[in-house]
Specification:
Elements lengths: L14 H13 L6 H8 L3 E11 L2 E13 L5 E8 L4 H17 L5 E8 L7 H16 L9 E5 L5 H14 L26 H14 L2 H6 L10 E5 L3 H13 L3 E7 L2 E4 L6 H11 L9 E3 L12 E4 L18 E3 L8 H10 L2 E3 L1 H4 L2 H15 L5 H24 L8 H8 L4 H26 L6 H20 L2
Parallel strand pairs: 3-4, 3-5, 6-7, 6-10, 10-11, 11-12
Antiparallel strand pairs: 1-2, 2-4, 7-8, 8-9
The protein binds nicotinamide-adenine-dinucleotide (NAD).
The site of nicotinamide-adenine-dinucleotide (NAD) has 24 residues, from α8 and β7.
Length: 482
């Protein structure tokens, strides 16, 4: 029994509209008052800023945004994107996805997102630093960058470098704020970041897929069987998220990356691509063109329609849409990017029985590890130091007891030095981050699949994920008030 009005394809243009339609489908299954539904759905505020920077003997004016979707928990959290396509609708859609994503993985944040209309490839590092610092200044003076109010992170076109500039800019403006480092996450480890943040979103995609493949009934719903080993995978976008996901899946799970789509074309190899070699080629040449060990396809988007078991869009939104959805052959799609499938395409794929692991779950690894980084910054203690001490103390007790028992039974023996050193060593920061991420991805998937199986009328993992998330946000409003 579904009451969702399928919008006219000719009027479904916006990214926000797509996210809202997905929200609307989910709330039908929840018992919320219309007022509360509306409160959760709408974007609270979007700030637009235009600022000038002296560059190359003249003045250049830039437009940037920071949108806050929901403050049911603070700080609000979400990346900053650098791209010429950035616009108000896009940041609002991305901010709402952040709200739902944080609730799903129980990261205690509201949702936000920012963007700057810029093609970063057109500027030198020095110019980018000046532009970034000025943008950060504009946002920070309105508390849109702030450790307890609004904490950005990397997104398309930005990374550790930009986050370090933002953190430094904020610290200079707030010299007495002892928590200044927590104003942004995704910083380099040497500047208050955390091990494992750079890989986190791609790592989360891998952990999410592993969890999916641990459930044969779920795998069967996609018409597949077995494990990730040998599965043919197509990846769109070999940036931060796509590269790490493709690398880990091929190196650690035996998946075969048969196609990579980039901004300047695509690569195809039935026997599998060497992800590291392609990445190095892109870093040196700015794109995939000319890569020697694969078939080059100029019209890359057609590769989305190739035969494979798993499709991983990890670049832009709206790439699977009303024009190509019917031709997508992959039985399983994991949305590493935000919003890669429009609402219409989602309808077509649902009807075909394609299983979609949705963005709000699939790429939540980034915000999960950002949360660890934020906590590390606020606690002013190396992440895991307390756990490590406790772990070492517990392990020492076991070793002592084993040695005491061996003497007591009169057959003295000694633990090898190798065993002792490995056993006594507490987990390091990277291990703790990875295990925390794995745990988060596993438990979030359990909560979604439980609903997917118990309520067949819900129909798909995306709707189930929205239901879990919206219900948690509603609970927060119910307990705390508006
Ligand atoms: N970085 C994170 O931690 C993070 C977290 C959650 C979600 N995401 C989402 O993941 C997606 C990718 O983000 P990222 O951080 O990897 O960005 P990125 O800038 O590191 O990489 C994006 C890649 O996509 C490629 N690309 C651009 N246009 C393309 C096109 N038309 N066709 C194919 N490839 C194209 C770029 O060349 C680049 O290699 C975005 O949707 C982002 O919102 C990122």
């Amino acid at each position: 029994m579904e009451h969702v009005q399928i919008p006219d394809p000719l009027v479904e243009h916006g990214f926000s509209a797509s996210v809202d339609h997905m929200f609307d489908r989910a709330v039908q299954f929840l018992n919320l008052s219309p007022g509360l539904e509306q409160k959760i759905r709408v974007c609270n505020a979007t700030y637009t800023v235009r600022f000038g920077v002296r560059l190359r003997g003249g003045i250049e004016t830039f437009t940037g945004y920071r949108s806050v979707h929901s403050e049911h928990m603070e700080p609000v959290k979400g990346g900053i994107r650098y791209s010429l396509d950035v616009n108000r609708d896009e940041v609002e859609a991305l901010a709402s996805l952040m709200t739902y994503k944080c609730a799903l993985v129980e990261a205690p944040f509201g949702g936000s997102k920012g963007g700057l209309c810029i093609d970063p490839r057109q500027y030198s590092e020095e110019e980018l630093e000046r532009i970034t610092r000025r943008f950060a200044y504009e946002l920070a003076k309105r508390d849109l960058i702030h450790p307890s109010q609004n904490v950005p992170a990397p997104d398309m076109g930005t990374g550790e470098r930009e986050m370090a500039w933002i953190a430094d800019q904020y610290a200079r403006m707030n010299t007495t704020d002892i928590n200044a480092q927590a104003c942004v996450t995704g910083k380099p480890v040497s500047a208050g970041g955390i091990e494992g943040r750079v890989e986190a979103t791609g790592r989360g995609v891998q952990y999410g897929l592993r969890e999916f493949f641990r459930h044969p009934e779920d795998v069967a719903r996609a018409g597949l069987q077995g494990s990730l080993d040998g599965k043919r995978v197509i990846v769109q976008g070999l940036g931060n998220v796509g590269y790490h996901a493709a690398k880990f899946l091929s190196e650690e799970d035996g998946a075969k990356i048969i196609a990579i789509l980039e901004h300047d074309g695509g690569l195809f190899s039935e026997s599998g691509l060497d992800v590291e070699a392609v990445r190095q080629w892109i870093l040196q040449h700015g794109g995939v063109t000319g890569f020697p060990d694969a078939l080059y396809v100029e019209n890359a988007p057609v590769l989305l329609e190739e035969d494979c078991e798993i499709l991983i869009p990890a670049a832009l939104e709206g790439v699977i849409n009303q024009h190509n959805a019917a031709r997508i052959k992959a039985p399983l799609i994991i949305e590493a990017a935000n919003g890669p499938i429009t609402f219409h395409a989602n309808e077509v794929l649902r009807a075909k029985g394609t299983v979609i692991i949705p963005d709000l779950y699939a790429n939540a690894g980034g915000v999960t590890v950002s949360y660890f980084e934020w906590v590390k910054n606020l606690s002013h203690i190396k992440f895991g130091r307390m756990q490590r001490r406790q772990e070492e103390a517990r392990h020492q007790l076991v070793v002592d007891e084993l040695e005491r028992l061996s003497k007591a039974i009169g057959t003295p023996w000694e633990l090898s030095a190798d065993f002792k050193s490995r056993y006594l060593r507490g987990a390091d920061e990277l291990e703790l981050v990875r295990s925390g991420l794995d745990d988060t991805m596993r438990s979030a998937y359990q909560s979604i699949r439980a609903l997917w199986h118990v309520r067949p009328d819900i129909g798909d993992l995306r709707t189930a994920a929205y239901c879990v998330s919206i219900e948690r946000i509603a609970d927060s409003y119910r307990s705390k008030g508006l």
